[in-house]
């Protein structure tokens, strides 16, 4: 599998997600897709509402970690395709920041693979989010499973 960057500057557009799905219509061995979309929440923390998250990463390390996740996923699950995209930069509340797209012959594999892959991303990839509040203050986001 070739190495590629998984990062998209800013929010992940719905058009990009739709085009990704459409590209797989020609792959006739696929029987199931599963998509996970991570969206920025307008959490309230200590009386302040999150309006955006500013994502940063150690890109080289993060891409290496994503490559390792890709290899583990293909080794553990009977997948035909897998794509991961994560935002960098500012993503406003309500916008998409993570897009995981998994394809296989049968549905059971895609459900199990998607949850596992998202958990690996949360625990193994050096991506950092600075939650920006409506009053322009910020705090570093803590990942949770």
Automatic annotation (TrEMBL):
Belongs to the MoaE family. Pathway: Cofactor biosynthesis; molybdopterin biosynthesis. This is Molybdopterin synthase catalytic subunit. Keywords: Molybdenum cofactor biosynthesis. It comes from Flavobacterium psychrotolerans. It catalyses: 2 [molybdopterin-synthase sulfur-carrier protein]-C-terminal-Gly-aminoethanethioate + cyclic pyranopterin phosphate + H2O = molybdopterin + 2 [molybdopterin-synthase sulfur-carrier protein]-C-terminal Gly-Gly + 2 H(+). It is an enzyme of class 2 (transferase). One of its GO terms (molecular function) is molybdopterin synthase activity. The keyword Transmembrane helix does not apply.
């Amino acid at each position: 599998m070739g190495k590629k960057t998984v990062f998209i500057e800013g929010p992940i557009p719905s058009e990009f997600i739709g085009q990704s799905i459409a590209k797989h219509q020609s792959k006739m061995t696929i029987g199931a897709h599963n998509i996970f979309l991570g969206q920025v929440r307008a959490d309230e923390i200590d009386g302040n509402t999150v309006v955006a998250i500013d994502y940063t990463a150690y890109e080289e390390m993060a891409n290496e970690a994503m490559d390792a996740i890709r290899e583990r996923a293909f080794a553990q699950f009977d997948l035909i395709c897998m794509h991961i995209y994560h935002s960098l930069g500012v993503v406003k509340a309500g916008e998409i920041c993570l897009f995981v797209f998994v394809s296989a012959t049968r549905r059971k594999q895609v459900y199990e693979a998607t949850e596992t892959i998202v958990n690996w991303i949360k625990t193994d990839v050096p991506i950092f989010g600075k939650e920006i509040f409506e009053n322009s203050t910020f705090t570093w986001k803590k990942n949770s499973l």
